[in-house]
Design brief:
The complex is a heterodimer of chains A (about 300) and B (about 250).
Chain A: E1 2-5, E2 10-13, H1 14-31, H2 36-46, H3 50-74, H4 80-107, H5 110-139, H6 150-162, E3 166-169, E4 174-177, H7 179-195, H8 200-210, H9 215-241, H10 246-267, H11 272-295, E5 302-306
Antiparallel strand pairs in A: 1-2, 3-4
Chain B: E1 6-12, E2 26-30, E3 35-38, E4 43-52, E5 57-63, E6 66-77, E7 80-93, E8 96-100, H1 104-107, H2 110-115, E9 126-128, H3 133-149, E10 153-156, E11 160-163, E12 167-175, E13 181-191, E14 194-208, H4 209-220, H5 222-248
Parallel strand pairs in B: 8-10
Antiparallel strand pairs in B: 1-3, 1-14, 2-4, 4-12, 5-8, 5-13, 6-7, 7-9, 11-12, 13-14
Helix pairs in contact in B: 4-5
The chains are: A mainly alpha (about 300), B alpha+beta (about 250).
């Protein structure tokens, strides 16, 4: 069933978009990842302009994160002080990223940058997850993070401890410099506006291993930060680049909410290692598909874009 | 679908004019004055009905409003194919359909075809920035190839049906993602290799309904639209996710 998207100015199959949303929601319910890193490439594969894919993805994440954040807030899992500092960072980073997107769009390089960032990011995450989950499945080793990165983590930790503006975060039971979370937030904000990802895959490990926050609080706080970062980026993309397609975002939200429920139900029955293996395979497959489109000579080297009508 | 969103496309005010010069009378009128395109509609079927004074061949030229497009070309960077050069193509019609009762090349001399703009790839397109002739020609060739591939430039010598050498009906099929603006329909009556009659009409195409509203809101009130829509997304997510969860607990 074809559906006209007014901002992307193209027809899409509504069922296909709904399925994308459901697939990402399903994975997110199954293994607890946000899934923004899958939505954007899938939309780009469908022919949606990268800037519209990234921007509408932000709006979709703001939608899906609001429900989950509400639940964590009810359970008292959000460190608001930490969340606010992260937010200030990610709003600054997000604003810079949206501006960078505008500059790249003008130079005609936005598509290239997004695709390369995705290949690097998905390749890195996918392969490291694949190695870890294959190890976990076959050796039944506890799925904790590998110890190989420990030296760099402790180095980073020492560096964070030396920064100014030491502040106490009672909800998380830690004391550290506010500069650490500010920089972390800024890095994640840039990724949100350039790639349409929530950045949970960076935020969560850094908060657990570097900032030494309790896991329960980490998930709630990172969701809180994600909600307001994606919301701010979505507003900025709409305001500066006119690139949020409301119909696309709404279809994705409905799909992902339904998918999340299904995924969460199934996730409760499947063993954790196998779930991570499934996710790793999906991530590697998307990365591989992107590499293929980059490497295989295109049948038509010219492409036409109609300027805003 | 409860919220069926409609993309309405109006073909308004078709204004057939009298022949520009009066060798042979030729009258053309559309069979419909309004075409509605719903979301599952892939294009519009437009009919033009006309009358001519006696036997002859017909050519109908349908020209869409001018459009600015950006053309990009992939180049090889190491092992990768990436987006490389890009140019703007200006002044080209968004759509160009040439309908005729026989192949146009057999009806008119090349000079006559040129005079009436009846050669698909003869449209003058400005390439910005200005390039050397052979480089610009590569881009123009690519432009016409893509336009034809996407179904916006087309020549069809079977679309006009003539009845009793007097009446004719032209079936014009328009694609779904039309450029909005004024379209021109030029009808030419050809006799013995010469244009014997000529009439021009116009119609307007505009987006209507919610699509039009969303598009204007997103461009004219971008920040307000972005803020309200993001808030709406958050509320929708909350409603879909949190409320049913609470009920089940």
């Amino acid at each position: 069933m074809e559906f006209f998207l007014p901002i992307a100015h193209m027809d899409v199959n509504i069922v296909l978009i709904l399925l994308y949303g459901a697939l990402v929601g399903f994975l997110s319910g199954l293994v607890g990842v946000g899934g923004g890193f899958l939505i954007t490439p899938l939309l780009i594969f469908t022919g949606i302009p990268p800037i519209v894919a990234v921007s509408s993805g932000s709006a979709q994440m703001a939608g899906t994160a609001s429900g989950a954040s509400y639940l964590h807030w009810r359970h008292g899992n959000i460190d608001f002080k930490m969340g606010l500092i992260l937010l200030i960072g990610s709003w600054l980073g997000g604003g810079f990223g949206v501006y960078l997107a505008k500059v790249l769009l003008r130079a005609g390089q936005f598509g290239n940058v997004v695709v390369f960032l995705y290949v690097i990011l998905l390749g890195f995450i996918g392969v490291s997850m694949l190695i870890e989950s294959v190890r976990a499945v076959f050796r039944a080793v506890a799925p904790a993070a590998s110890a190989s990165a420990a030296p760099s983590r402790s180095l980073l930790r020492t560096w964070v401890e030396r920064l100014p503006w030491q502040t106490a975060f009672p909800a998380s039971g830690v004391r550290m410099s506010a500069v650490g979370p500010l920089l972390l937030g800024a890095a994640v904000g840039i990724l949100t506006s350039l790639m349409g990802v929530g950045g949970g895959f960076i935020m969560v490990p850094v908060m657990i291993y570097v900032l030494k926050m309790p896991t329960k609080i980490v998930v709630g706080t990172s969701l809180f930060q994600l909600l307001f970062t994606t919301a701010a980026v979505s507003i900025m993309q709409a305001g500066i680049n006119h690139s949020v397609d409301p119909f696309l975002a709404l279809i994705l939200i409905v799909g992902s909410v339904l998918g999340t429920k299904l995924g969460a139900r199934l996730g409760a029955r499947l063993p954790a290692e196998k779930l991570r293996l499934i996710l790793a395979l999906v991530v590697v497959a998307v990365a591989a598909k992107m590499v293929v489109t980059l490497v295989v000579p295109p049948s038509e080297i010219y492409d036409m874009t109609v300027e805003v009508r | 679908m409860t919220r069926r969103l409609r993309c309405l496309l109006f073909v308004l005010g078709w204004m057939p004019q009298m022949p520009l010069w009066a060798e042979e009378p030729l009258v053309v009128a559309p069979a419909t004055s309004e075409v509605k395109i719903t979301t599952d509609f892939a294009g519009a079927e437009l009919k033009a009905v006309g009358a001519m004074s006696g036997p002859g061949e017909l050519i109908i030229k349908l020209v869409g409003p001018q459009q600015e497009v950006t053309l990009s070309r992939e180049t090889k960077l190491g092992p990768f194919w990436v987006e490389g050069d890009r140019v703007k193509m200006e002044n080209a019609p968004s759509l160009l359909y040439l309908y005729a009762t026989a192949p146009i090349a057999t009806l008119l001399s090349p000079a006559e075809q040129q005079k009436y703009g009846l050669i698909l790839e003869g449209v003058w397109v400005r390439v910005e920035p200005q390039l050397k002739a052979h480089a610009a020609s590569d881009w123009r060739k690519a432009f016409f190839r893509l336009k034809e591939k996407q179904g916006f430039y087309r020549e069809d010598d079977h679309a006009i049906r003539v009845f009793g050498n007097r009446l004719f009906i032209a079936d014009m099929r328009l694609p779904g993602d039309l450029q909005v603006g004024t379209y021109t329909v030029e009808t030419l009556l050809v006799k013995s290799g010469k244009v014997a009659g000529h009439t021009v009409g116009t119609f307007k195409v505009r987006l209507s309904g919610i699509e039009r509203w969303v598009w204007s809101a997103a461009h004219d009130h971008a920040w307000l639209f972005g803020s309200l829509f993001t808030l709406l997304s958050m509320l929708l997510g909350l409603a879909l996710n949190a409320v049913p969860y609470r009920r089940t607990r």
